[in-house]
Amino acid sequence: MADCIFCEIVNKRMKSDIVHEDEELVAFNDINPQAPVHTLIVPRKHIESIHSMKPEDAPLVSKMVLIAQKIAEKYKLNDDGYRLVVNYGINGGQTVPHLHLHILGGRRMTWPPG
Ligand code: AMP
Ligand code: ZN
User: Fold this and answer.
1) Per-residue tens of pLDDT for the chain, all 114 residues
2) CB within 10 Å: which end of the chain, N or C, has fewer?
3) Which of 7, 13, 15, 32 to mutate to test the pocket of ligand 1 (most atoms within 8 A of CB)?
4) Burial (CB count <10 Å: 0-12, 13-18, 19+), residue 103
5) Which residues surround ligand 2, an ion (CB under 5 A)?
């Protein structure tokens, strides 16, 4: 998809700090981290948001969560815990229109979120 920064990262046309990649997914560290660990997991396929995923995308979204587990283990977050976040739309705070799962850890998160 033209002009999508996460497609640019996935296709290696834009530099990023990649921590995992496979046939379907790429994970890289957030450029503006909100916690000691802040990694984004994105599908290679351009899906605009969680709200535009189709039934056939369900396995991909499940895999995003399973990769989040692996990244949590890599950064030793499993004992203390971590937070997974998907923002959608203006009110949800989505700023990049390519589906991504945030994994945040390494500090105590607050609730409710701002
Ligand atoms: P969201 O607000 O949920 O759409 O999250 C988008 C995230 O992408 C934000 O946390 C940004 O800091 C992050 N981000 C934007 N551009 C880049 C980039 N080039 N490399 C890594 N992370 C980025
Ligand atoms: Zn994209």
Assistant:
1) 789 999 999 999 999 999 999 999 999 999 999 999 999 999 999 999 999 999 999 999 999 999 999 999 999 999 999 999 999 999 999 999 999 999 999 999 999 998
2) C
3) 32
4) buried
5) 1, 4, 6-7, 46, 98
